[in-house]
Design goal:
mainly alpha; Methane Monooxygenase Hydroxylase, Chain G, domain 1; 7 helices; elongated
Length: 217
């Protein structure tokens, strides 16, 4: 088998693993959205189930990133853009790490604090925007093997979502500083929304990395 065919096989395998990684991360983000709803409704059983699912999804993302690293290491110089693939995989792993941190903070905020200032609606809105951005990343990863030009077009949509998250994040932080008297809850809310904004920034970084991949194909 000649090197060109080996490179094509290595590329397909790496992109398949990358897509799987983003899909698991998307599932974890959706569970974060479900967690927020269950916390507000006071359904502790659903809260626990969401936390377990997020933990499992996060571990799967890490396992897939390690698998990607091993496989690219095995292919050696067959893939000319292996560094770009690895960079993307590590960014996705970072996003998954944000999810568990946000979930921990949300689970420890008093429900009365969330409802009183309608912070539940603010946080749900922010999380839903990030879930949408991750869904776009999932589409970008899928398009890499089918239509790389579509990946580049989708990148603009991720950027638009990131800007919306950034604007909403600032408003929620100012609102929290003005309306939450309890220091503990103030810090938890602030840290949670900062984590969501950090996720959006990482989504933008992943989008840029996927765009670089698309341009190199």
């Amino acid at each position: 088998m000649y090197n060109g065919e080996l490179e094509v096989q290595a590329k397909r395998k790496a992109l398949a693993v990358l897509h799987d990684e983003i899909t698991h991360m998307l599932n974890a983000a959706r569970d974060l959205s479900s967690l927020t709803d269950s916390i507000i409704k006071g359904t502790s059983k659903e809260t626990e189930l969401s936390l377990v699912r997020m933990k499992n999804a996060g571990e799967e993302v890490e396992n897939l990133r390690r698998k990607m690293t091993r496989e690219i290491s095995d292919t050696g110089s067959l893939m000319v853009y292996r560094e770009d693939v690895l960079r993307t995989a590590y960014i996705i792993d970072d996003i998954a790490g944000y999810i568990t941190g946000i979930a921990f903070r949300l689970a420890n905020i008093k429900i009365t604090t969330l409802k009183k200032g309608k912070f539940d609606e603010d946080i749900s809105g922010l999380i839903n925007m990030v879930v949408e951005a991750i869904f776009k990343l999932n589409e970008m990863a899928r398009a890499l093997s089918i239509s790389p030009s579509s990946t580049i077009e989708l990148a603009q949509e991720v950027q638009n979502i990131e800007r919306k998250v950034d604007n909403s994040y600032r408003k929620v932080v100012i609102k929290a500083l003005n309306e939450i008297p309890n220091t503990k809850d103030l810090l938890l809310v602030k840290d949670a929304v900062e984590g969501i904004e950090g996720m959006a920034d990482k989504c933008q970084a992943a989008s840029d990395s996927l765009t670089i991949l698309a341009l190199s194909m």
